[in-house]
């Protein structure tokens, strides 16, 4: 196996099944250190699953998932706990703790993992909030925030422990164009100013391609195309064009695999 020092995450020949159903078959993926990597693909194809595999919450049936050259699926529980501290995941539902203020939400992982004197913790939290433009909202409760602000507060919490990798699951979903622009800019800024490796899973092609150094498209249980944003835009594969142009139907089927429609309808009750 070639071990790369330039890729923070390296997936080789990885297969993952849900029951008998393959989600990934012999898939390969490299996520370069310090870059923004976009993972795109149709709904239900396995993008969130991929993030959970990288985070060690799910185990593949075969293959390797290297994080900084450590094979995640084979790590002991305690080692995985250590490695996971270096990664952060921001899920779409990235819920804040509703009974804690914005300040305390961001302070939570710091209090949980580090034993910092209160004045240092205070300043660290304010610095994280400053980086997402919410220092002024430190004392607000999550219920008082707009959707976009809540997402930014969740981002401040996700970077509280200075992870090396941050994985965003659909960061733009449900945002108005201005909030989307703010989030695009924030991802780009935290990548550039903190040197954070970012993986962004999304359907929002234009937004993500504007900041991604590399972009991959998942379909048919593996990566069907990848490269720089520009290379992907020039790709002539009809499946890639279908996805990038947002066409509802094409070589990548719109429907989740199902029984014959007519048979299902006349078959009556299930
Ligand atoms: N806990 C589970 N048990 C069984 N199947 C699951 C489970 N979670 C997800 N799946 C299936 O795995 C497949 C991949 O799901 P996943 O959430 O990774 O897709 P996705 O590409 O992130 O979709 P979307 O873009 O719609 O969020 C889906 O078909 C889903 O039905």
Describe the structure.
The chain is of the alpha/beta class and 270 residues long. It has a domain of 184 residues: 3-Layer(aba) Sandwich (Rossmann fold). Helices cover 36% and strands 24% of the residues. The strands form 2 sheets. It has a 6-stranded mixed sheet, sandwiched between helices. A 4-stranded antiparallel sheet has the order 2-1-4-5, covered by helices on one side. Helix 3 crosses helix 4 and helix 3 packs parallel to helix 5. It is globular, with a radius of gyration of 20 Å. The model has no long low-confidence stretch (mean pLDDT 87). The site of adenosine-5'-triphosphate has 10 residues, from helix 1. InterPro entries: AAA+_ATPase (IPR003593), ABC_transporter-like_ATP-bd (IPR003439), ABC_transporter-like_CS (IPR017871), P-loop_NTPase (IPR027417).
